[in-house]
Amino acid sequence: MNVFRIVDSDAFAGEGLRTVVYVAGCNHACPFCYNRLLWNPNIGQKIDEDVIQRIDDDLDNPNIDGVTFFGGEVTYPPNRADATKLMAYLKKRHPTKTNWTYTGYLFEQIKDLEMMKYIDVLVDGPYVQRLNYGIGKSKWRGSANQRIILVQESLKQNKIVYYRDFDGTELK
Ligand code: SF4
């Protein structure tokens, strides 16, 4: 798996302040994709000890609430083995820091992947330009079809459990 970019601290990639990892490789080809450059799985840097250490160090910062995986597509099939290892490692090292993962797949298509054990919140579904109502109306999502899902609760209950905003609204 290649990593294109790491942003140490971002306030718009999920709850709180987050370290954002932009992963290379995507097979969804959503029309009007905001990041076509990252369809190419060979762009960026191969994940290695230095890249892992950089993310690890970011998560040591007490002001950082967790890690967010953007893409590209972290669940792109050739990325899955490395991504699972990385997520497992980060969860072990930083059990209180959350993992938010963005994917073009639907939860139902990837719920059995091993990496799902380490993801707290999944923002799922392809980007649909006509459903982009702007950041004010679609918090944390590019388009309104995308769901914000509490992964562990959903796996336990065998049904989709939505993330609730601070005012109790389900983000579905
Ligand atoms: S899933 Fe994301 S990166 Fe992939 S094509 Fe769709 S918008 Fe682009």
Give an account of the 3D structure:
The protein is an alpha/beta fold. The protein has one domain: Rossmann fold, CATH 3.40.50. Helices cover 22% and strands 20% of the residues. It has 4 helices and 7 strands, in the order βββαβαβαββα. A 7-stranded mixed sheet has the order 3-1-2-4-5-6-7. α3 links the parallel β5 and β6. It is globular, with a radius of gyration of 15 Å. The protein starts with a strand and ends in a 15-residue tail after the last helix. The site of iron/sulfur cluster has 13 residues, from loops.
Total separate domains: 1
Give the strand order, joined by hyphens, for the main sheet.
3-1-2-4-5-6-7
Beta strands, count? 7
CATH class wording: Alpha Beta
Helix content: 10-25%
Strand content: 15-25%
- What is the rounded Rg? 15 Å
Order of helices and strands: EEEHEHEHEEH
Annotate the secondary structure layout.
Blueprint: E1 2-10, E2 18-23, E3 45-46, H1 49-60, E4 66-70, H2 80-93, E5 98-102, H3 107-110, E6 121-124, E7 147-150, H4 151-157
Parallel strand pairs: 2-4, 4-5, 5-6
Antiparallel strand pairs: 1-2, 1-3, 6-7
The protein binds iron/sulfur cluster.
Iron/sulfur cluster binds at residues 26, 28-30, 33, 35, 38, 71-73, 104, 126-127.
Structure in a nutshell:
By secondary structure, the chain is of the alpha/beta class.
